[in-house]
Amino acid sequence: MTNETWGRVQQELLKRIGKNNYATWIEPLRLTQLKNGVASFEVPSHFHGNWVSRNYADQIQLHMNDAGAAVERLEFVAGLTSTASAPQKTAAKPATGGPAKARSSGQDEVLGAPLDARFTFDTFVVGKPNELANAAARRVAEGGPVSFNPLFLYGGVGLGKTHLVHAIAHEIHQRQPHLRVLYLSAEQFMYRFVQALRERQIMDFKELFRSVDVLMVDDVQFIAGKDSTQEEFFHTFNALVDQNKQIIISADRAPGEIKDLEERIKSRLQCGLVVDLHPTDYELRLGIMQQKAEVYRQQYRGLVLADGVVEFLAHRITTNVRVLEGALMRLFAFASLVGREITLDLAQDCLADILRASDRKVTIEEIQRKVAEHYNIRLSDMIGPKRVRTIARPRQIAMYLSKQLTPRSLPEIGRRFGGRDHTTIMHGVRKIEELMATDSQLSDDLQLLRRLLQG
Ligand code: ADP
Ligand code: MG
To answer: Which domains are present in the chain?
Structure first.
């Protein structure tokens, strides 16, 4: 096979796996020999050879064969340029789909785990609960001097962390295509680290992670309690920060609240900008639903969506955006299957299970907010120390409702009320139970609040 033919194979691969992957993995390959069905490539490191072998061997082989070369096996040879060590060979293993395997699907994919092409800033609906996180993410994506390092995004399940992190990657990719962006989950980080250890390629692993311009690690809480992975993560983190490289981290809670995470890591994570995605409010959910409904309307041409359905869903499904999206998807699919208009009745039938499940999911935060609103006190007073009756009573009502409407234990509730002891919560709950019997205003209030909370 001539270099020209290999050039054509490379062009083909470029089209399939995207610019970034191509530049990172394929461009550095040098075809040195093709003999007896074995194609030998020189690679910069063992890690590189391994990675290509695992992820791209099939495609390389396929396109080489298409170009007329009879290739049965690929071989990657590292270290030819270095005099220190003898060359070591990595035979191509058949690619198997482990969690670390990057699927070469989208064009936008960066080295590491694939990005979801739909998760861009354009499709991210901004509302009060996520405006700060959105602004910070955009700021980081715009580049310029590294101002927030790391950017630490946290929030509950399905509130848009991964969406925002991917949006940053897409944006950087567009604005500064020369930057090497590495996105992966903390789980994948661990997986690769362990693999590198096992295959004695830890130096290559380090080199790879230290050579990126932007590192994004999703769901970092995963490495809590995994000591050697944490250790390695810490060193990677420091090396990149020292080089002034941008790091973006997401987690399901604040750095300080991740159990079994080393103190020094917590404090490093807190050095940059820590922003949270708050639970969605009705307006945000409605905005998201309207956007998605528009997409579905175009997809399922001819389906009629009755007034009020989107509002109904945004009102009733408050747990997380993923569930909300799933509900809408199911609704459209079902309606198109039975050829009916999407009405409130249909929604109630078709989504009965989801609606029932989200009925039970009242959160302590929502209770605190609603009760504070109802009694016209500040939300911060719910968790604050003030003891005046006008504040203490609503607080006790919120404690009572938390016990009634959520599955949380007394100590858990105590924690959400500014770290109060469980006995304080128990006292509050009893107090309200007592008063309810005699105070009809209070029991009316409770009934109303309960209705508001349960939708
Ligand atoms: P997380 O990583 O926080 O668990 P994701 O980023 O995976 O959540 O979001 C779950 C789903 O909800 C995704 O499909 C995402 O696109 C969608 N989503 C969440 N927040 C928004 C938003 N503000 N605008 C549009 N879609 C959103
Ligand atoms: Mg996520």
So the answer is: 3-92 (3.30.300.180), 111-276 (3.40.50.300), 282-358 (1.10.8.60), 364-454 (1.10.1750.10)
